[in-house]
Amino acid sequence: MSEPGELVVAAVLAIPALSAALLALLPDDRTSAWLNAVASLLTFLCALVLLAERPSPGPFLIVDDLNVVFIVLSTFVGFTTSVFSASYIAHELEIGRLTHAYLRFYHAMYQILMFGMNLALLSNNVGLMWVAVELATLTTVLMVGIYRTPAALEAAWKYFLLGSVGIALALFGTILVYLAARAVVGEGLDAMAWSVLVERAAEFDPALLNLSFVFLLLGYGTKVGLVPLHAWLPDAHAEGPTPISAVLSGLLLNVALFAVLRFKIVMSANPGALAPGPLMVALGLLSVLFASFMLYRRQDIKRLFAYSSIEHMGIVTFAFGMGGALANFAGLLHMTLHSLTKSAIFFCVGHIAQVKGTQQMADIRGLTVSHPVLGWGLVLGVVAIAGIPPMGIFMTEFLIVTSTFARQPVLAVLLGLSLLVALGALLARLNGLAFGDPHGSREPAKASFVPVAIHLGLVLAAGIWLPSTFVAWFQHVAALLR
Amino acid sequence: MDQLALDVAHLFAGGLVLTSFMLLYQDRMTGLINTFALHALVVSFSVAWQAYIQQAPHLYVTAAIALVVKALVIPLALHRIIVRLGIHRTIEPVVGIGQTMLAGIGLVALSVMVMLPITAQAGTLAREDLAFALSVILLGLLMMISRRNAVSQVIGFMSIENGLILAATGAKGMPLVVEISVAFSILIALIVIGIFLFRIRERFETVDIHVLHEHRGEQP
Amino acid sequence: MAIALELVVQLGQMLVVLALAPLLTGYVRKVKARLLRRQGPPLLQPYRDLLRLVRKEVVLAQNASWLFRVAPYLIFATTWVAAALVPTFATGLIFSHAADMIAIVALLGSARFMLALAGLDVGTSFGGIGSSREMMIASLAEPAMLMVVFTLSLLAGSTQLSSIAASMQGPGVGLRVSLALALVGLIMVAIAENARIPVDNPATHLELTMVHEAMILEYSGRHLALIEAASHLKLLLYISIIACVFVPWGTAVSGQGLGAYVAGLGIYAAKLAAAGFMLAVFETVIAKMRVFRVSDFLGAALMLGFLATLLLFVSRVT
Amino acid sequence: MALQGLLWCIATLLGTGVAAIAMARHRSATTLVYGVALCACMIALAIAGWSLLALDSPGEALTLPVGLPWLGAHFRIDALAAFFLVVVNLGGATASLYGLGYGRHEETPGRVLPFYPAFLAGMNLVVLADDAFTFLFTWEFMSLSSWALVMAHHRRPGNAAAGYLYLLMASFGTLALLLAFGLLAGPAGGYAFDAIRSAPTASLAGVVLVLALVGAGSKAGLVPLHVWLPLAHPAAPSHVSALMSGVMTKVAVYGFVRIVFDLLGPPVWWWGGLVALLGGVTAFMGVLYALMEHDLKRLLAYHTVENIGIIFIGLGLAAAFEANEMPGAAALGLTAALFHVFNHSVFKSLLFFGAGAVLTATGERDMERLGGLIHRMPFTAFAFLIGSAAISALPPFNGFVSEWLTFQAILLSPALPQWLLKFLVPAIGALLALSAALAAACFVKAFGVSFLGRPRTEVARDAAETDRWSLASMFVLVALCLLAGILPGYFIDALAPVSQALAGAHLPRQEQLDWLTIVPIAQSRSSYSGLLLFLFIALAAGVGAEVIHRWASAATRRSAPWDCGFPDASPVTQYTAGSFSQPIRRVFGSVVFRAREEVHMPPPGDVSAARMHVRLHDVPWDVLYVPTAKLVSFAAERLNKVQFLTIRAYLTLVFGALVVLLIVLAVWQ
Question: Which residues of C touch D561 (CB under 8 A)?
Fold first, then answer.
């Protein structure tokens, strides 16, 4: 029982909660934007400590190889996004898209969202995790609707309805898991604790587990944005404030997928249960195929990248579905890198949309000429997301495709071709956005490029060199995932 | 556990399914809301009964929550809302009642079929409860997709929640976490719905989703 | 010592071809004239023409470049070297290994390349017509030639003219269909390459029909002389290839001594005479064809060569 | 030792690229970047040359702790790698030398300087890579950096589209290679080349070959995967075009050789047939495309396609011979192919440099608007002439030697037991001969129309000779064309270790033969001595000139050309590129390109000009690419409807998914 570890975990959860309350009370928005950033920074620093200090699993909270990486990742992206959001929000105030009241609400919600996600990642209890995920979802619902334009309202409404159906299904799944566990573990909290579930999973009733997994996959899959449960995702990304789009793509999808992973571990620990692989492979491949074709007809730049998020979540799900040391490792790495890259892209996109005053790609041209930094940032981001070296996503896609081709050639070919289709769409868009004669306003963007630079730098570094401890964790988790 | 207890529990669960069918059948706003109140009432009874037979006092809380919030508060609120929005007109299901009913029966059959292979290990009570709960959930979904009006969709959604409560209480000895979370989610749901209905009221003259989705970021 | 003799013989060969080439042309012209019941120019007329041209001054077009002036020498040199490497009266000369049949064809290709460029240099449309048509013809003639080479090398297991000649004399060959096809193909190529009827008419200056003459229209004086000499050499070269491959008998083998060389020379002259006569007859009895039918003509040659190869495979296995 | 040196050179290049981002605006950036690149490439060239001659068979290997965590980045230099490094760095050095002058005319150096060294580094790394991941990583990195260079002039019409197509095709090729390596490495993921070699031959070796052919071919420009090449190569700055055409395609060839001859194990006979046939078709189609083309740089790009075809003919023959245990013949085919790799990189770079000089002098790439440049740019013209002669396979230049060797390999084909090959190879030989002859025609057109005749436009009339740096690098290459042409023996000997390593045999040592003759198999069979031919020609020409000028007239007079009594000054009456290629278009085009000529004659009495219009169809494009694009956009259009459903419809989707899964479950249990 390492005391400091406990404290740190408590801090990671407490800081967002407290600052949320504080921000809700603070009237002034200037400072609140920075307070927001500072709070996120503190959370991130505490999370960093977790890399070194791990508390032993308690009844409600746990830190293990699987979530330690994601907690650090999400607090980090949360921090960078808050920095970006500061400059973004300032501009929104100038043009009067947001009022002070809404801004207060926005910052409070932002911290609650962080709290929810950290809790979901840290929780050692299925029920608690469920609550946390729902909390995060509902806060994002409110944030998406914050502009109160008809489109934003509809996006939020759609998100709310689909999301809460997901909530219901996930809860039912959770109950089933409890039932399955209760018969073996006995009543009480233990029957909902990861650490216990994973150990005893072998003795559970397979039928119950199967049923529960169907519901959990669909329930959390709705949040992951797997086709055909994806409908809320593009609009929610497109109509909400860009920092929220970044957090959605970068973190919330990951958190939901993380939940699915937890249950997949339990499933695959039980010999009698049906292998979760085929379901996930099917959904993942469906998502990749669908999303990569959907990329072609997009006119709104944020929707474009929202669909690319669907595609990448599909890739990750596919990888985990395939299983095996290589594919699982690649899947985990892909989740990490995708959240970094995609949020970086959304940072660029946010500034671009603000500078050009539109999200319609038809009106954005020749960025590398008019706004070199933003333009090349976007180019780099798209190159990374398209899986082209030297950026890291190439490594994961390399591992996924090669390891699949040796086992399931047809699936690998399908995946590869749909990746190619997606690449075609992204590059076609990139040609229009970044190259050619510039179009629209040329005034320099008042933006902080640091977050973009850091994210892309990390992705680049990951493509070239990965720290060994990091690799060790992922490999351990990959082994757990079968 | 004696036979009687089982039968009563069975009775309540079955009653819930029946009420779900009634929900599907209703095509008047007011009638719909009233039926939903009944739905919530049945749930609270069944939860109470579970509390009694499981000697689990905390379930009484859940029952009370269900009774007060869902059977009284929400229906009243909804009545207020529809009065304010002035939608007393009949709401037409998209597919005819008949087909909806048939589909519903099919769903019940499906849920039973899915539950069958579960070993008795989980307990017959739990098994039956789960079967009924699942059918309630599916029926609620069916209602959501067969209605085009926001309020009725919300009602469908809340009937799903009831099904969840049924399942949760059926799962013997499940920690309080679940009840709290359910209540919690109902609360959130109410708030959000309120906000939304309010805003929607502000923006449009109707709650009809059909009108909502005319506004889209991207033209086809 | 032996080396020295070898060198002398090689040099002799070079001089022989240079000396005989105009005579061959004159001879063909004479025979043609006779067949047409004309008196015709004297046999030595080509020598006279060359001498006169060499003495005259060169008239250069205004914008002729250095390439225009260098080309004739290169054309002459390459053609001469090519002709000198073909065994005429003796095989297996010291430098005969410097180039096999493919290389000889390619050397002629270099000459043609320069000529075509020279045709384009002045910038009149005649040069253009000539060059473009010449290259079109060549683009078909060269593959046909290479198909013939392919056939021969399949038979003789070599692309070295000397070895081919040697194996042709050997007993193993006998009469083969593919040989006949190859011969016909080679002859057709030779006709096309030397701008003879029916592909081209060396005697005309009628713009629409001429190819070779159009390219050299701007040449005069010593340049023209060199180019004329080159074309004489080319004719000689092709005839000697045909002779060396298909009627290899009587050629001396290097190192047999002077007598053999003289004998070989005599026989070689006889072969030239016969071939020249046949060429003249052929040219008198046939009519010039339209430029765009040349492709069919040469395509036929290509097909013949290809057919020869395939037939050879068949005859090989049986 | 050698390997470290090379890696340091590469690191230097990468560093230069990064530094160039910072100082791109600076004036001296151009000189600095190209200077450093030049030095790095020279050093790398020296090291590579040394290791090609001196290194023993297994070569040097080392592993860096980057790339795949548990694998690391393996690098190895063996004979094959050393040879291709020579090609790469020779190209890089000359291009950098050229760039020292040419780069000054660049209007947006910021878009060229950072990527140029990265491109060089990428090509070097691909050749050095010794595991699948590093190979593909660097391969794609090479594509990416060259894409950036293609996009350097993105505002010119068509360039952006060219870059798009290029990167898409490159990724397609990478995907194919990815799958190929997936098969080679197996599910366990033994990505290191050693592991692949030691592993038993992959079960679907044929599939691997086809994938490798698609992957490497799409980068090298095999028909029908060539469509991007004539668009992308010319779009880049000329020295980069030279690198892409002359060197990058060779790196693709390297990839193919590495996979098929080294990793894949013993070949099967039909592989050779397939590869050689593709090569023949590519050579023929490429040169025909080139003949129809009037854009100077694009014409050169199409000739790259042709020469790649010739190289693949050699490789295919080598595979076929190797499959039939004829190591000597295999060595001949391989040597021919590799020697042509070297030669083509030399003269193609030379030609692109020439085209670049013309471009800077006139701003024109369209031959129809050039002409008469030989007067204004004599040195460039001379260099271009030599390059044209070399690429047209004319003795005594280097192009001829390698094509001659290829022919010798073809002539060995009768010994092959398979009937299909017996019949196929002569046909391929015919295609090769045809393309060689057509290439000559094409370069008569290219040189004649753009350098000879009278200038067709003002810009052509006012052109000026290009700068010293460019000329220097061009003349270096001219010297190489001649050297490799007249002293081929040494080059063939240098290739001996490569063919020894790959085919298990090598050609007989050439250097001690008298008169530096080369003898692939036996003296009696075939031999060629470029040196002798060169000496004879020089001698004969010299003697001729000497004699005539000494004893006959040397007088010259200038006058107007003969105009058949139809006086006209206008250069328009010259033969244009279009009219030059008309006969050949008539002969081949009507079949291959479905070429149609339409002549619009004004009615009698109307004085307006008659107009002739030629329409060509690019058959592979129409048959393969257009339908694919149509298919994708059709699918996109159809699926796009899903974006515009009602919320209820979306809920229905969720509901449907749930019900379907439940039914599946019910059925499964």
Answer: 61-62, 122-124, 218
Whether D668 contacts chain B with CB within 8 A: no
Contacts of D485 in chain C (CB under 8 A): none
Give domain status of residue D642, yes or no: yes
Residue B194 neighbours by CB under 8 Å, 6+ apart: B77
Smallest CA–CA distance from B200 into chain A, residue: A153
Nearest to A287 by CA among A234, A356, A349: A234
Nearest CA in chain A to D171: A420
- Judge: B111–D662 Cβ closer than 8 Å, yes or no: yes
pLDDT digits (tens, 9 = 90+) for D289-319: 999 999 999 999 999 999 999 999 999 999 9
What is the residue-wise DSSP string for D182-222?
HHHHTTTT--BHHHHHHSPPPTTHHHHHHHHHHHHHHHHT-
What six digits make up the tokens of B102? 């048939």
- Summarize the confidence of residues D626-644 as an average pLDDT: 92
Q: For chain C, what is the domain count?
A: 1
pLDDT of residue C294: 87
Q: Each residue of A393-418: pLDDT tens digit?
A: 999 999 999 989 888 889 999 999 99
Half-sphere exposure (Cβ direction) of A257: Cα atoms closer than 13 Å: 34
In the chain, the amino acid numbered D229 is L
Number of domains in chain D: 2
Q: For residue B9, what are its two tokens?
A: 């529990």
The reply to whether residue D557 touches residue C60, judged by beta carbons under 8 angstroms, is yes
Nearest CA in chain B to D658: B138
D662, part of any domain: yes
D651–A274 CB contact, under 8 Å: no
> Which backbone phi and psi does D558 adopt, to 5 degrees?
-95, 140
Cβ-contact D40, D9 below 8 angstroms: yes
CB pairs under 8 A between A and B: 134
Classify residue D630: in a domain, yes or no: yes
Nearest C-alpha neighbor of D342 from the set D490, D454, D505:
D490
Tell me if chain A has a CB within 8 Å of the CB of B124: no
Percentage of chain C exceeding pLDDT 70? 95
d(CA D32, CA D29): 5
CA-to-CA distance for B28 and C34, rounded, in angstroms? 119
Do D526 and C74 make contact, defined as CB atoms within 8 angstroms? no
Q: CA D437 to CA D446: how far, in whole Å?
A: 14
Q: Is C210 left (phi over 0), alpha (psi -120 to 50) or beta?
A: beta
Residue A114 to residue C73: CA distance in whole angstroms: 86
Q: What is the DSSP letter of B175?
A: -
Domain ranges for chain B: 3-212
Measuring CA to CA, which residue among A260, A307, A310 is closest to residue A285? A310
Q: What ipTM was estimated for this complex?
A: 0.91
| Beta strand D611-615 pairing with D596-600 | antiparallel
Decide if pLDDT at B217 tops 50.
no
Look up the domain containing D604 and give its range: 581-615
Range of the domain at C170: 2-317
Q: Which of D39, D34, D35 has its CA nearest to residue D5?
A: D39
Residue type, position D23, single letter: M
> Where does a domain end: D615, D641, D660?
D615
A122-140: per-residue pLDDT in tens? 999 888 898 899 889 888 9
Q: Which residues contact D200 (CB under 8 A, 6 or more apart)?
A: none
Could you give the angle at which helices B124-146 and B150-170 cross, rounded to 10 degrees? 170
DSSP letter, residue D514 = G
B contact test, residue of D641, D642, D648 with most B CBs within 10 A: D648
Q: Chains contacting C with at least 3 CB pairs below 8 Å?
A: D
Split at pLDDT 50, 70, 90, the class of C208 is low
Break chain C down into helix, strand, coil percent, rounded to 5: 75, 5, 25
